[in-house]
Amino acid sequence: MQKYVCSTCGHVYDPEEGDPDSDIPPGTPFEDLPEDWVCPVCGASKEDFAPE
Prior knowledge:
By secondary structure, this protein is mostly beta strands. 0% of the residues lie in helices and 15% in strands. The chain has no helices and three strands. It has strands spanning 4-6, 12-13, 49-51. The protein has a three-stranded antiparallel beta sheet, with no helix packed on it. Strand 1 and strand 2 form a beta hairpin.
C-alpha cells in the first residue's frame, strides 16, 4: 500500500500501521481516511500529504 508523507513535518502515514491514536485501524488506505483527519504530529490537513 502507498505511504504518504506530510509536507509540513515529514510524518509518514503508513496504511499498514494505520493511526491508532485517531482510531484508524491498520490496513486503512490513505484515500479512506476521513476528510477531517489531520497529521498526528503537527495537525496538518489531509491535503498537506503527498505520496512518498
